[in-house]
Structures are given as structure tokens and as C-alpha cells.
Design goal:
InterPro entries: Integral_membrane_TerC (IPR005496), Integral_membrane_TerC_rswitch (IPR022369)
Number of helices: 12
GO cellular component, one term: membrane
Number of domains: 1
Main location: membrane
Shape: globular
Keywords: Membrane, Transmembrane, Transmembrane helix
Helix content: 55-70%
Largest sheet: 3 strands, antiparallel
Strand content: under 5%
Order of helices and strands: HHHHHHEEEHHHHHEHE
Subcellular location: Membrane
């Protein structure tokens, strides 16, 4: 696939522009409702699908199918990531109006991390093609482990990252609006929102370890790997507010994702020296596994209403009172330039 430098630059510029639009549209802390989240989700999906249609028309059906297979894998894994974020926000009792800023920075960090992982993966495959067997074995192991632990969920109270952060970083025990850092009596302190952001970024790394080998199983083109990841991640913030309260209804999603990882692991192992499964077949199998898991989940839980996760009885952090807010100062102040008389 011959991708000129101007196209790389244009795509990266488009992604940055969309991030800027997303930031500008949600620059004020407010509760994002279902209708707003659904509208934004539709916009992001339309952009991702539209880009895939463009790839199909310009570069042909084979590369177009590879993009859509990768996009579907990344979008599906992103839903599982959304549910992990919902658990984190609920455990730490993060006010809903503050969640979107953490999510925006989390998506931005995920894009940077994925870019680094993709570059490293492409270089490793180019230098040592047998590493595909390692990727395949990892995907198979991950898929089997996901099947075995499909009913288990992350427990932030037992997180080593949380314990390390609270031990190593001086911090407040109250949220102070959208601030990540504040000063109290001259001392620089982290707020709980920074801890939540760090934990979100760590989960992004964990999900990237699974998703990058998975997408390399359906396409070896770095441009398609990067764009499928990027366009799947761009709508992640809106998807969170759309799906977080429906977590209890996707009972078979993790099983479907596990089977997808097993499938692409088998595909990757076979394509090295045995048989290359056609992309159209692979795309069909992935779509059927994900679509079947979602349809079966919604059918089994039909009639259930939207509901958030149960809030902890004694959350580790709380929102600062007006008096407590008055005691802190911005972490970084602009230096005042003395006026000339």
C-alpha cells in the first residue's frame, strides 16, 4: 500500500482537528446526556465508516475490507474499555460533569500510546516475521483467559497503581472541579481527578497490548492499523456516556470479544506458512461474532432499563465544599508583569 506523505499528514491533521472540535464542544464541565452522547457517537462512527469507504474506493476492496475488519475489532474492544472506565468512575465517585475531561485526555493518551505500539509492532514484524507466531500465541492465550474470567471485573480497591500513587504522590481527598493539581498553603497537591486519569491511562496501555496484535492479524499495513485505531478511539468519550449505564445488558460481549481474539490468533498463526484466510471471510466471522454477542445480550436482558453501577457506600473521595475550595489555589499562576508608570 503506497501512502504518500501528504496523506499521512492530512489524516493526522484531520484527527487533531476533530480532537480540537471535541475539546471545544465540551470545554465547560457539564453532565452529558444520552441524546447528546448518541448524536456525537453517530458523528464519530460516520466519520470512521466514511474514511473506510474512501479507502475502499481508492485502494480497492481488499484493503477496504482490511480497514473495516480492524475498525470493527478496535471498536468492539473499545466498548469493553468503556465498561472498565465506568467501574473506575463509580468506585472513585467522580462527579459526572467532571468525567468528560478525564475521558478526553484518556483518549488523547491512548492515541499517542497506540501510535507508539503500532510503530514498534510494524518494526518488529519487518525485522523478524516469525514474531507473528508470538503474537498469535499471545492472542490465543488472552482469548482463553478472557473466556475463563468473563464474569470478573476490575477492582480499583486492589489496584497496585492506586496504592503506589497514594503512597508516592501528596494529594487531597477531595475533588476541586476540573483541576488535577492545586496548591494548599504553598504545597503542590494532586487531586483525586489526577489519580483517576493515571488509572485510565494504565488501562489504555493494557488494552493496547491486546488490540495491537489483534489488528495486525487482519492487516499488516501500518496506515490501516493506525487509522482504524484512531477512528475507533475518537468516539470513545461519547460512547462512554451512551453505554456506561447499559453495562449490565452486554452480558455476552466479553465472550464475543474472546472468541474474536481466538479467531484472529488462529488466522495469524496460519497465515505465516500454512494458509492465508481471505479477508472477506475474516471480516464476516468477526462481524458475526460481535453482532451475535450483542444481539444475544440484548435479547437475554430485554426489558431492563438503563441503570448505573451501584455507588460505593463509603467512596474514598468526595467533592470539596465551598470552604475547602476557597482554601486552595491554582497550581500554576501567571507571573504578573509590573506596570510602568
Amino acid at each position: 500500500m503506497d501512502v504518500p506523505l501528504w496523506l499521512w499528514s492530512a489524516v493526522i491533521g484531520l484527527i487533531l482537528a476533530m480532537l480540537a472540535v471535541d475539546l471545544f464542544a465540551h470545554r465547560r464541565a457539564h453532565v452529558i446526556g444520552v441524546r447528546e452522547a448518541a448524536a456525537w457517537s453517530a458523528v464519530w462512527v460516520a466519520i470512521g465508516v466514511g474514511f473506510g469507504v474512501g479507502i475502499w474506493q481508492v485502494y480497492g476492496s481488499e484493503l477496504g475490507q482490511q480497514y473495516f475488519a480492524g475498525y470493527l475489532i478496535e471498536k468492539s474492544l473499545a466498548v469493553d474499555n468503556v465498561f472498565v472506565w465506568a467501574i473506575i468512575f463509580t468506585y472513585f465517585a467522580v462527579p459526572r460533569e467532571l468525567q468528560h475531561r478525564v475521558l478526553f485526555l484518556g483518549v488523547l493518551g491512548a492515541l499517542v500510546l497506540r501510535g507508539a505500539f503500532i510503530a514498534a509492532g510494524a518494526a518488529a514484524i519487518d525485522a523478524f516475521s516469525a514474531i507473528l507466531y508470538v503474537f498469535a500465541a499471545f492472542l490465543l492465550w488472552t482469548g482463553v483467559q478472557m473466556i475463563r474470567t468473563r464474569d470478573a471485573h476490575i477492582d480499583p480497591s486492589r489496584s497496585r497503581v492506586v496504592r503506589w500513587f497514594r503512597r508516592a504522590v501528596p494529594m487531597t481527598d477531595t475533588f476541586h472541579g476540573q483541576r488535577f493539581l492545586v496548591r494548599r498553603h504553598g504545597a503542590l497537591l494532586a487531586t483525586p481527578l489526577l489519580l483517576v486519569l493515571v488509572l485510565v491511562e494504565v488501562t489504555d496501555v493494557i488494552f493496547a497490548v491486546d488490540s495491537i496484535p489483534a489488528i495486525f492479524a487482519v492487516t499488516s499495513e501500518p496506515f490501516l492499523v493506525f487509522t482504524a485505531n484512531a477512528f475507533a478511539l475518537l468516539g470513545l468519550r461519547a460512547m462512554y456516556f451512551l453505554l456506561a449505564d447499559l453495562m449490565h445488558r452486554f452480558v455476552y460481549l466479553k465472550l464475543g470479544l474472546a472468541l474474536v481474539l481466538v479467531w484472529v490468533g488462529v488466522k495469524m498463526a496460519l497465515q505465516v506458512d500454512v494458509y492465508k484466510i481471505p479477508t472477506a471471510v475474516s471480516l464476516t466471522v468477526i462481524a458475526l461474532l460481535i453482532g451475535g454477542a450483542v444481539a444475544a445480550s440484548l435479547w437475554r436482558t430485554r426489558g431492563q432499563e438503563r441503570t448505573g453501577l451501584p455507588a460505593p457506600e463509603d467512596p474514598p473521595f468526595r467533592v470539596a465544599t465551598a470552604e475547602e475550595d476557597a482554601e486552595v489555589e491554582p497550581a500554576f499562576r501567571r507571573r504578573r508583569v509590573p506596570s510602568r508608570v
